[in-house]
Amino acid sequence: MIRVVVALAVLALPSPALAWGAEGHEIVAGIALRELSPGTRQQVARLLGGEAMLIHESNWADEIREQRPETRRWHFVDIPLDAPEYDAQRDCAQDDCVVAQIERDRRILANRKLPATMRAEALRFLVHFVADVHQPLHAEDNDDHGGNAVRVYLQGQRTNLHHIWDVNVVEALGFDADQVAAGIEQGASPAQRKAWQTGSPASWANEAHMIARNEVYGYVGGRRTLRMPPAYLVAEKNVTRTQLAKAGLRLAWLINAALN
User: Fold this and answer.
1) Residue 92's domain spans which residues?
2) Cβ distance 125 to 74 under 8 Å?
3) How far from chain centre, in Å, is Cα 46?
4) Half-sphere exposure of 162 toward its Cβ, with a 13 Å CA cutoff?
5) Number of domains the chain contains
6) What is the pLDDT of residues 23-34, one digit of tens each?
7) Residue partners of 64: CB distance under 8 A and separation at least 6
8) Residue 30 sits in a domain of what CATH number?
9) 10 pLDDT higher than 80
């Protein structure tokens, strides 16, 4: 509960910061934990001090942002909304974006010659950033601070578009992160697992970017202020559930490969 309050407070700031909010990150980590092999679970437990720490540490990358300002841009990638796809030279100068950071953390985690503390930190970052890259507003640039500058009125409350996609669309799935994660993980078919546990951080960013372009801004249009009906959250359940499922399954895929 404390993490949720902190996340909501920070989300009021004008920056594309906390993808999915605390609950969304815990759902992604919960899905991934269920998909880890027994051997990988043991290694995660050794690195983090317990396998359940994968969930407990899923918001760590947000919690240390003030102490580690160099990590700020690792949470998102600014793909121009009208661009067809990610371009590393244009969107990730000096490898300073979520796409490059996922690759970097994966390599560190897989390198057993490195100190355990370094690999543990890479795992904490990885569990967070894989979730981040699947949040549509973390893969677009529409000159609106990731949707923070788009004012939204929902059920009598003033908020913003980024907050809607960080928190509200996730809460529409339920408030128990463990229960939601279990339902999503169990609902993924073998065909979906095979189809989703592939690709690269760049291709995942492209998927999220197209959702932002077609689904999110297709609805918002060019508006910077709008009233949003509660039915919007219901209508976006499938997109939200699918993005969380992909993030969790792909996170498990990366960790299993790195630690096995």
Assistant:
1) 2-259
2) yes
3) 24
4) 29
5) 1
6) 999 999 999 999
7) 71
8) 1.10.575.10
9) no
